[in-house]
Automatic annotation (TrEMBL):
Name of this chain's protein: peptidyl-tRNA hydrolase
A GO molecular function held by the record: tRNA binding
PANTHER family (alphabetical): PEPTIDYL-TRNA HYDROLASE (PTHR17224)
Main EC class the enzyme belongs to: hydrolase
UniProt keyword annotation of RNA-binding present: yes
EC id: 3.1.1.29
Native source organism of the sequence: Geococcyx californianus
Keywords from the UniProt entry: Hydrolase, RNA-binding, tRNA-binding
Superkingdom of source: Eukaryota
Coiled coil: none
Family, as annotated: Belongs to the PTH family.
Gene, per the UniProt record: Ptrh1
Length: 134
């Protein structure tokens, strides 16, 4: 599960994917388990939920380059694109509304575009979190 955003710019609308992962880590009781993984240039936490082993990932790059971290982590942990969930902001959705999208285009989102390019696939599932327009 990759939370897309601009690393270090906490609290901004475009980093809502990382905020969602922080909340997920708290709920899975692994919030103290985040560690920097230089191999994929990301913060990583490992968790288990409903019999699944999860890798939570917050890329340590700007949004336009998040895909490089996601692709490196996919190689390290032997994931294929269909195993990856991207959590990211969506300007077209009202603030706080969420939707799941299975594959498809980036719809103008640079972080998703970066992931599609780096993974050579658009098969990732996406949790789109509405941030609304300013």
């Amino acid at each position: 599960v990759a939370g897309l955003g601009n690393y270090g710019l906490w609290g901004t609308r475009h980093s809502v994917g990382m905020a969602v992962l922080d909340q997920l880590a708290r709920q899975l009781l692994v919030a103290e388990g985040w560690r920097a993984d230089r191999r994929c240039c990301a913060d990583v936490a490992l968790a288990a939920a409903h019999g699944l082993e999860l890798v939570l990932l917050k890329p340590r790059r700007l949004m336009n380059l998040n895909g490089l971290s996601v692709a490196s982590a996919a190689e390290i942990y032997s994931f294929c694109p269909e195993d990856i969930y991207l959590v990211h902001d969506d300007l077209e959705k009202a603030l706080g509304k969420v939707a799941i999208k299975l594959g498809g285009s980036a719809r103008g989102h640079n972080g998703v575009r970066s992931c599609i390019s780096a993974l050579h696939s658009n098969e990732m599932t996406r949790l789109r979190v509405g941030i609304g327009r300013p």
